[in-house]
Write a structure and sequence with these properties.
Number of strands: 5
Order of helices and strands: EEEHEEHH
Number of domains: 2
Mean pLDDT: 95
Shape: elongated
Helix content: 25-40%
Low-confidence stretches: none
Distance between the termini: 45 Å
CATH class of the largest domain: Alpha Beta
CATH superfamily of the largest domain: K homology (KH) domain
Oligomer: single chain
Strand order of the largest sheet: 1-2-3
CATH architecture of the largest domain: 2-Layer Sandwich
CATH topology of the largest domain: GMP Synthetase, Chain A, domain 3
Structural class: alpha+beta
Number of helices: 3
Length: about 140
Amino acid sequence: MEVRIDHLGDVQFEITTRGHKVYCDQPTDAGGFDEGMTPPEFFLASLGACAGYYAADYLKSRNLLKEGLKVRVTAEKAKKPARLDDIKIFVEYPHTLEPRHYEGLDKAVHACLIHNTLTHPPKITTEIEGAPKLQALAA
């Protein structure tokens, strides 16, 4: 799995994967043009879309109605270090569910790939590529 992010200028980026493109920007009060979601918004969108996928898959596999399924994700900004905190996933389902399906739907949402990645933090490494490193001058 790979996603490519190309800097377009200022604080705008083009994000490409498998031939699909989306754009990332900042609000105007943060120096952007407000022509795309911010990285934290993409992060929440990813979590919500994943939760929605797992919820819809659960409903489909049990021949339950999928119409009206919605997911909303909220978070608060935290500092030291800067991050998102108090993330909440709200699954809106307008149909009556038996208790076993209510529990099953909740379990399905908790099983989503992004949710599991956050609850079991991955190893993350960073490499600077392409730019030669200057040697430190000898004193």
